[in-house]
TrEMBL record:
Source organism, top-level taxon: Bacteria
Pfam families: DUF6350
Keywords, comma-separated and alphabetical: Membrane, Transmembrane, Transmembrane helix
Membrane-spanning intervals of the chain: 37-57, 69-90, 102-122, 134-156, 162-184, 216-241, 261-286, 324-345, 366-389, 409-430
Source organism (scientific name): Paeniglutamicibacter psychrophenolicus
Record flagged with keyword Metal-binding: no
Protein name: Uncharacterized protein
Keyword Transmembrane helix (UniProt): yes
Length: 442
């Protein structure tokens, strides 16, 4: 059999180049990440600008130029990324303090748009890279988003509103970065594959007491998260029911405004964008901490004082009438805490109770002490989550009385922590009576 004739080096290089041209060059990871986030930024911008253009074409902004409408769209794009806007000439009185204001109220429902777009991009970046090279795609993606924020902040400043270039550059990268990291983690399947660190192997090298302590802490964190999320779910359900009950009042406000078909659509989209905020306001209301709708207006299950409100249809569903028994809604966070206590019993990680029972022989005393500690720990973490949620849901509209809008951050967290702590203790103590698991019974 004759040997295959060896090609000259020049011919081999030429054939390799031809093959590469036919198959294409793989895109560098940082460039792919940049391209993915550029798509996310542009698509989220289109979703914001299109409604404004629709209103402009229908005559809603008859006195504005197309450049002015584009700048307003850019300002809204920054606002949904939690970038504060400095409003200028918002007041007409002689008081100079009425001439400007800070608008830092973030419509969380609209913030989910860039978040999920970046979440999708994170999954695509993780799918195209190895664990040790994932940082390249994420770095390229965040670099493009920083440039988009800087470019937008530079273009949207006008005589009505201004924005800090530093804030416009850095703050949009926070929801975008959260989206890409969570999306990459979702695609990788575990944090170990995502960051190249095997946490299970590291934990296996620690002592048994350290593993028990870690398991207890993790179960407490999961219980606190479960209690807070269940309270949020109950608040969302209560908000939906309240909107259904007051739907006639909401419709009457629409009829009085007469915004037209396009105006009604944009107004509805804007209200849908603040629905997560309203759900967090409802959470603050049921805890007793309450929320404010401008200086002098406070609503909670314990006290309600409402001043003049803007003509926003959804505000027609605010609690009104006889609220003598509204305090009963404060039992909902307690119910969420009971669910957390039941969860903690099911996972069987109460190693603090094992430790206490070895040092205090009286069972009622050891069980009582460990259960109180469990309630305090779970309630404290739920309260810490509430601090973040309430802070995100509030802010300032920068106009007149509405410089204070949203939940009472500290009071809501304290009351929620106390209510969840009480529910967790109760739930942990009564759950064995409801269980029929042979493992638990034994």
């Amino acid at each position: 059999m004759s040997e295959k004739k060896k090609q000259p080096p020049a011919a081999a290089a030429l054939n390799a180049a031809r093959q590469r041209l036919s198959t294409g060059w793989p895109m560098p990871l940082f460039l792919q990440g940049a391209f993915e986030f550029l798509q996310a930024a542009l698509f989220s911008a289109f979703l914001v600008v299109i409604p404004w253009f629709a209103v402009w074409f229908s005559g809603g902004f008859a006195d504005r130029s197309i450049e002015s409408v584009l700048k307003m769209g850019g300002q809204i794009w920054l606002l949904i990324h939690a970038v504060p806007l400095h409003l200028l000439q918002v007041g007409t009185g002689a008081d100079p303090s009425q001439g400007s204001g800070l608008l830092d109220f973030t419509p969380l429902g609209l913030t989910l748009i860039p978040f999920f777009l970046c979440w999708r991009a994170g999954r695509r970046i993780a799918r195209a890279s190895y664990t040790d090279s994932l940082w390249q795609g994420i770095l390229g993606a965040l670099g493009v988003y920083l440039l988009c924020g800087l470019f937008t902040g530079f273009l949207v400043n006008n005589e009505e509103a201004s924005v800090s270039l530093l804030a416009a550059t850095l703050i949009p990268a926070i929801p975008a970065g959260a989206g890409v990291v969570i999306g990459a983690r979702r695609e990788a399947g575990s944090w170990g594959r995502l960051i190249g660190f095997d946490a299970a192997a590291w934990i296996s090298k620690t002592s048994q007491h350290s593993r028990w302590a870690g398991s207890y802490v993790w179960a407490v964190l999961c219980g606190g998260t479960l209690a807070y999320m269940f309270t949020f779910a109950l608040s969302s359900l209560l908000l939906a029911i309240n909107l259904g009950v007051h739907w006639v009042d909401v419709s009457n406000v629409y009829q009085q405004l007469r915004p037209g078909a396009i105006g009604s659509a944009v107004l509805t989209l804007g209200q849908l964008g603040i629905m997560p905020n309203l759900a967090l306001w409802t959470l603050a209301w049921i805890t007793g901490g309450g929320f404010t709708l401008g200086v002098g207006s406070t609503l909670s299950t314990l006290e309600t004082t409402v001043g003049p409100l803007p003509a926003v249809p959804v505000l027609a569903a605010l609690p009104s009438g006889d609220l003598a028994y509204a305090w009963a809604f404060m039992g909902l966070p307690v119910l969420a805490g009971m669910l957390a206590g039941w969860y903690f019993l099911r996972v069987g990680e109460n190693h603090l109770d094992d430790w206490v029972s070895k040092r205090i022989r009286s069972r009622w005393a050891s069980l009582g002490l460990s259960t109180v500690a469990l309630g305090v720990f779970v309630g404290a973490f739920a309260g810490a989550l509430s601090l973040v949620g309430s802070w995100l849901a509030g802010g300032s509209l920068g106009i007149g009385r509405f410089t204070e809008v949203g939940p009472d951050v500290l009071m809501t967290a304290l009351l929620l922590a106390a209510e969840v702590a009480l529910g967790t203790a109760i739930g942990y103590l009564i759950s064995p009576l409801l269980e029929h698991d042979p493992v638990l019974d034994g």
